[in-house]
User: Fold these one by one.
Assistant:
Number 1:
Amino acid sequence: MMLKTEIIIVGKLDSQWSDWFEGLEISDHGSGYTIFRGDQLDQSAVFGMITRLASLGMTIVSMTVQNQDNHEK
């Protein structure tokens, strides 16, 4: 099951962090926010992302996770 994930955090992280965040696209929102977008294999991978962000002391503003399998049918 692939999960389409978007996480918005307060603060700025540049694309150099992409490998640490399992290849998610990282973009600067331009107003002090960073957006992570991409596909995660399962719910445990999403929780891993949250744990990594927490370990950096980042604040999550918004998070959207959608099951891609349901959208492709």
Note: The longest strand covers residues 59-67.
Number 2:
Amino acid sequence: MNSRYELLIFDCDGVVVDSEPIGNRVFREFLAEIGITMSEREVYANFLGRALADSLKIVEQRLGRRLADDVVAQYRATRDRTLREEVQPIAGVEHVVRSLRVPYCIASSGDYDKMRVTLGVTGLLPLFDGRVFS
């Protein structure tokens, strides 16, 4: 069977795992803790699809100061704990990946640790072993 595709690249958040609403909520709570109030819609508009480092630069610009490393570490810990507790795979994605007959991988603007958490807890990490890019 010849395929017209040479490689299929999956995005992680919102495509393979249903993490977007969770991540948005946790980031909004983090922003509120450091004094920035934003609606759900504003957080999506300003931060969706951005790497955490880029999002934190925007936050620091709004605050007019640098965030302490421990504050960022606490955010990451809360994010990862919440994802472990709540994230689910997108319905049917495991079947789709297992049925592929072309090379595939997964990519994200999220960091490797976040991807390991979300793919790991959903049981999808073995499907992408050696094929994870951030």
Note: The chain has a mean pLDDT of 94.
Number 3:
Amino acid sequence: MAPDAGGRLVGGRWTLHTPLRRAQRGLTWRATDRDGRPYAVEELRLAAGAGPGPGERGQGERWERVAAEVRAAAALDHSGLIRL
């Protein structure tokens, strides 16, 4: 599918087409880049009003899980992965 064949453009480069996997904290999308190459793009979602500060009970835990996932992703090194 061509990258401009519908979907939402993110980062000025990737077009999100259809969800591949739904998880508690977000979605993994089937995506293409500007050149039409296929990718999987993970979109993290937090509850409305979530923040790293001392907000509602459990919000700090959610941010810590997201931070742990980001640290794990940052540690990956493979030619098939894109660093953001």
Note: The longest strand covers residues 14-23.
